[in-house]
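Contributing new records

If you add data, match the layout below exactly. Sequence lines come first and carry their own label; structure lines follow with theirs. Keep one chain per record. Anything else will be rejected by the validation script.
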Amino acid sequence: MHVNRAPSWRVEAGSSLEMCFALYLRDCAGLGVIGQPAVCPVKPAVHCVSPRQVVHDVGGMTALRVEWEAWWYELVAHYGNGTALPTPPDFPELTSMPALQRLTHAHYGTALTWTQERDAAWRQRSLKRMHDGGQRCFGDLVRERELELGRPARHFSLSVIELPLSETRAWYVEPDRLILSEDLYDDEATFRSYVQPVVEIIA
């Protein structure tokens, strides 16, 4: 987790084990780009295994899609507020979502390993970026906006969630969430093209 802040604003950036885990399951099950926001597939890509037999008697693929989308909505809405990975062996957090519970049971080990590997890679990358001064990006954009407006930024708090996504882009979730590809920081022009409009809205 890293933070840019001033008296009137705060940008807090980090990754999310829970959201990485959920995206692994989505892509592994071949559910496609679903959910709100509908973020792209993960990077590196995961092996797709049809879950039709696993979820056949609990609503099938239709139920699995609906349940995954509901879960994703909750993870995005409550990022940083007590969300946690489903708990083996019975995954009681998913009791009301039997198809998703079955999918999680079938792929928990590989999903957890992939998620932990991505988290470790994000931590190394984040430390390097901080060492290289890359975390100034958000602060620079806010200060530029203040100069443009001739006033301090409005009071705002923005949670930035960095995920291992295959497209170099961002998704703004009103009013205070921004999901972005980890690679976006490495392309300043593209970073600005996605993030500057958000700063203009909230600052």
